[in-house]
């Protein structure tokens, strides 16, 4: 049985919100987002979680890390999306596909692990929800082809998330229920425009 770890964020929610607002505006400018895209990005829970991980974990150079990781995330959903789609090379580990946009130096390992598990859970739920559609489109999906055992991976990730209590990080995804799937919000993915 795993021991539960309770940890506090290295920043308050008010500090996170102020920093997030600055980062989101800067990235929206850099990616030349239209007003509706800017609003979408500013409110997107997965984007907020990506920024929160290094900030809340107290990583070295946390703001720069958040911007770099979010930049990779935005590249993965824009015109360059095909370069970030799942491939058999990602099958070695549930976190493999996330590695390019999730780089951290220092910080609270428990907070980083919890945040990464939350992102991986979003991803595996999406694989499951898109299995039939992906098969029809010929798009690679490790849950659909049986490489990933959806139920086992989901249970493992939920256990990892539950093992680390971080109330501030919980607030980032407070409006999303993992039982219903974090990807779906009227079938608009949390990271797509």
Walk me through this protein's architecture:
There is one protein chain. By secondary structure, this protein is mostly helical. It has one domain (5-172). It is 52% helix and 2% strand. The chain has helices at 13-30, 35-43, 45-57, 62-75, 109-129, 131-137, 150-162, 167-172, and strands at 5-6, 164-165. Helix 1 (13-30) packs antiparallel against helix 2, helix 3 (45-57) packs antiparallel against helix 5 and helix 5 (109-129) packs antiparallel against helix 7. Residues 177-193 have low confidence and may be disordered.
Task: Compose a concise summary of this entry.
This protein has 193 residues and is mostly helical.
Characteristics of this structure?
disordered C terminus; mainly alpha; 193 residues
Outline type: globular
The low-confidence runs, each spanning 5 or more residues with pLDDT under 50, are 177-193
Strands of the widest sheet, in order across it, are 1-2
Report the portion of residues in β strands.
under 5%
What's the topology here?
Blueprint: E1 5-6, H1 13-30, H2 35-43, H3 45-57, H4 62-75, H5 109-129, H6 131-137, H7 150-162, E2 164-165, H8 167-172
Parallel strand pairs: 1-2
Helix pairs in contact: 1-2, 3-4, 3-5, 5-7
């Amino acid at each position: 049985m795993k021991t539960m770890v309770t940890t506090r964020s290295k920043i308050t929610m008010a500090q996170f919100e102020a920093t997030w607002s600055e980062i989101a505006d800067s990235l929206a400018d850099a990616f030349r987002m239209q007003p509706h895209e800017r609003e979408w990005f500013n409110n997107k829970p997965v984007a907020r979680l990506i920024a929160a991980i290094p900030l809340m974990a107290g990583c070295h150079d946390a703001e720069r890390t958040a911007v770099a990781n979010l930049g990779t995330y935005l590249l993965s959903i824009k015109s360059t999306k095909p370069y970030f789609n799942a491939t058999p090379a990602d099958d070695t580990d549930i976190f493999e596909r996330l590695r390019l946009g999730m780089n951290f130096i220092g910080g609270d390992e428990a907070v980083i692990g919890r945040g990464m598990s939350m992102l991986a859970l979003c991803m595996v739920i999406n694989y499951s929800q898109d299995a039939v559609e992906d098969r029809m489109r010929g798009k690679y999906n490790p849950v659909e082809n049986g490489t990933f055992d959806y139920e086992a991976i989901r249970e493992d990730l939920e256990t990892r998330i539950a093992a680390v209590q971080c109330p501030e990080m919980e607030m980032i995804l407070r409006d999303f229920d993992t039982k219903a799937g974090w990807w779906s919000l009227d079938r608009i993915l949390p990271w797509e425009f």
